[in-house]
């Protein structure tokens, strides 16, 4: 089997790593890939994730049997539609299904139709009308750019002034470009977040164990939102015995609505949940693996992943083919100096081999490249040091031991990844 992974982050490195373990895989290509995907033995090809023509041409040229889009952008642009037209299997939703992530307003509409619990919200295309809404309902509020903003288009506004400023930033200053054509003003939910992912074949949804991401850049969930500073799986706030119930509540109703619309959803459907005092509520949907959740989740996944995905595309997903290690996995993201603002690039990185040599540790590359034979940083989230342990404390200990081995000038990471779960398990 010949596989093409689209993307260049830590999630894509983890997918390449997992695919390489399948006995039926002959070759893996990554477009454009990174320093980590090439180290795994994948062939990096410099085709951008938004070059659909180039990606289809590459898949044809290399006789690709399975395409796995990592990030949301190619999915929202319609890469699955294009690959299907070319007769190439692609594990992801069509462009209509991808609107669940590409448009928060669309996702809210589908949730309302499917009776999925979510925060009260209102959608605006006019700045003044949005500001009038703030004056009417007050704060705190969550202000969201409707479209894709690389995980950064969500502003938690503690007071009305912050909400008004966020509206100006999104809609007037165009901080997130066309993603701010519409703005979603949403109730501020209180609780603990969890990531809930299912593999879907159009009809069936098979839950994967829960995970918890850490969005804020600083310890104790302080500072601006990021693409994710670390994750662990499973998340004690969403135990295994709740997974089927959660699928019935948050994923399967969505599949039914999309199928009614003539667009059966194939791929990964990810519900970002807030576990509130009134029960779980969906914050948003993603239509792919999370990053960094993918890294610890794939370390725990047992089964032949390419085969599972091909079964999903064929509408024949078999839950018994998808197993999970009883162990816990935890990943710590190391970022470049300045992230999530302007950050430095080209910083040499050493110590990865030493970290990888530790028991249970695997370093996934997010923003790295090879320059003159040396590994250097090329993105904001540079590495995700991930470890498998007997329990959450063990995994946390092992991951941070791996972090200690790595040298990258100005590199930054949170020191409390997993602590919330540990506290919960201890009843704190």
What would you say about this model in short?
The chain has 428 residues and is of the alpha+beta class. The protein has helices at 10-19, 35-39, 52-61, 72-77, 79-85, 95-102, 104-114, 127-137, 160-172, 243-250, 252-260, 294-300, 305-313, 352-356, 392-405, 419-425, and strands at residues 2-7, 27-32, 43-44, 66-69, 121-124, 141-145, 154-157, 183-187, 192-201, 205-207, 212-213, 216-218, 222-225, 230-233, 266-276, 279-286, 301-302, 323-324, 328-335, 361-365, 368-371, 374-377, 381-389.
Descriptive overview:
- With 428 residues, this protein is α+β, with helices and mostly antiparallel strands.
- It folds into three domains: 89 residues, Rossmann fold (3-Layer(aba) Sandwich); 68 residues, ATP-grasp fold, A domain (Dna Ligase, domain 1); 234 residues, D-amino Acid Aminotransferase, Chain A, domain 1 (2-Layer Sandwich), CATH 3.30.470.
- It has a five-stranded antiparallel β-sheet.
- The relative contact order is 0.13.
